[in-house]
Design a protein that fits this description.
39% of the residues lie in helices and 16% in strands. Strands 9-10-11-12-13 form a 5-stranded mixed sheet, with helices on one face. A 3-stranded mixed sheet has the order 1-7-8. The longest helix has 17 residues. The N terminus is likely disordered.
């Protein structure tokens, strides 16, 4: 309590507008091509954000590719695989599954140890199966689930009802005995770590303090400004982590800055002391994935951007307001619309089921930016045409449609 009072006394105060600029710049959304172009820009995005969440939903292009395409002109999905093949990034868990820079591999060891400690419910049969699976991968090389016999005793009751061999593979992956890469069709390929980790990679298990410092700095690098609860999210797999204690120590050492944002009631927030604060926004438009780092914490969208958002694929169809998989559209520092879209890849048509505009007045410049982002998004989704089905603003929609004639 004493330190909390001290942190509040030493905190700097920011306007909500300045806080938004810091948050957007940290996320790589202060301007299009903030990270440059080409495959190196993909690596820079992952390095800056520390973790890019992947997702299997394929209504439009998958989330990890969407994150890149929103930031990198001319993005090619194969660049992620090339970076994986080069040993510069790898897939594992932070808060969820995603891509992480290989230079941070040692910090994944803490999470793997946590999974090992938590995964103590094995029967002798489970332990035997895991060893058999591991032995086979070591003997035969990289394997997929389909390479193992169907060892299910009862018929499957759904996609979540994994076969024993699949469960064994995933447990071996989570505890670090196996790693995964992906096929072009996004299927997992399991392999032993020594085949995927480059020589010279630091394999030293970090101390609890080092792991906490890594979580704090990498999370704030991605979020710009964040609360303790938001910072600890990436460490949630590690029980008893020292993130809260290390935040206090890092503030005292001047490595972090306590922040109060006018109009935000969450109390004291934090940012890195080396965080750039003099930021100008380009006014570019971004069509964002629901799993983009900017959208992970819905309350932040509400607190900083006055934007209420949720993914309605988890909402019963008759209760959806905007559509199954609506994508937020940002212009500058304002969320101006949300777009429910589906890519018909066979016909090469992007179906926009609903383009819903927020109660924000848009000028010609903003409409032009949205149109440009939409054209890029169509091409990114391997489509050549677009069909608009519905919008709450026929005037805006008409202007956009005319750009496609």
């Amino acid at each position: 309590m004493l330190f909390y009072y001290f942190a509040r006394m030493e905190a700097i105060t920011l306007s909500k507008a300045d806080a938004r600029k810091i948050i957007l710049h940290a996320a790589g959304l202060s301007e299009y091509a903030q990270f440059g172009i080409g495959k190196e820009a993909v690596y820079r995005v992952i390095e800056k954000l520390g973790f890019v969440q992947l997702d299997t939903n394929y209504v439009v292009e998958r989330a990890h590719h969407h994150v890149m395409a929103a930031r990198i002109p001319g993005y090619r999905p194969e660049w992620l695989q090339e970076l994986t093949d080069e040993g510069r990034i790898f897939e594992y868990f932070a808060s969820d599954a995603g891509y992480i820079p290989m230079k941070d591999f040692r910090y994944s060891l803490t999470v793997k140890d946590a999974f090992t400690l938590q995964d103590k419910t094995h029967s002798n049969a489970d332990i035997k199966l895991m060893q058999q699976v591991l032995d086979r991968v070591q003997r035969d090389g990289p394997l997929m689930v389909g390479d193992f016999d169907d060892d299910r005793i009862e018929a499957s009751s759904g996609w979540w009802d994994w076969r024993p061999a699949k469960v064994a593979l995933e447990r071996l992956y989570l505890t670090g005995k196996l790693m995964i890469t992906r096929t072009k069709g996004f299927k997992k390929v399991y392999d032993i770590p020594m085949n995927l980790i480059p020589d010279g990679t630091d394999l030293t298990v970090p101390t609890a303090e080092q792991y906490a410092q890594y979580i704090i700095l990498s999370t704030l690098s991605a979020l710009g400004i964040a609360s303790i609860k938001e910072i600890t999210w990436r460490a949630r797999r590690v029980k008893g982590n020292l993130v809260k204690q290390e935040i206090e120590l890092m503030v005292a050492k001047g490595q972090l800055q306590a922040v109060i944002v006018e109009g935000v009631k969450s109390g004291v927030l934090y940012m890195r002391s080396d965080q750039e604060t003099q930021i100008e926004l380009s006014g570019d438009a971004f069509i964002l994935s629901p799993f983009d780092v900017l959208n992970v914490f819905r309350h932040r969208l509400r607190d900083f951007f006055e934007f209420e958002y949720q993914i309605e694929c988890f909402v019963p169809a008759d209760k959806r307001k905007y559509g199954y998989f609506s994508l937020p559209i940002l212009v500058g520092d304002v969320f101006v619309a949300r777009m429910d879209a589906k890519a018909d890849r066979k016909k090469q048509v992007l179906m926009i089921n609903n383009l819903h505009f927020e109660e924000v007045a848009l000028n010609g410049f903003s409409i032009e930016k949205i149109t440009g982002a939409l054209k890029t998004f169509i091409h990114f989704n391997q489509c050549r045409d677009v069909v608009f089905k519905r919008s709450n603003r026929e005037d805006y929609l008409l202007t956009i449609q005319q750009a496609f004639l």
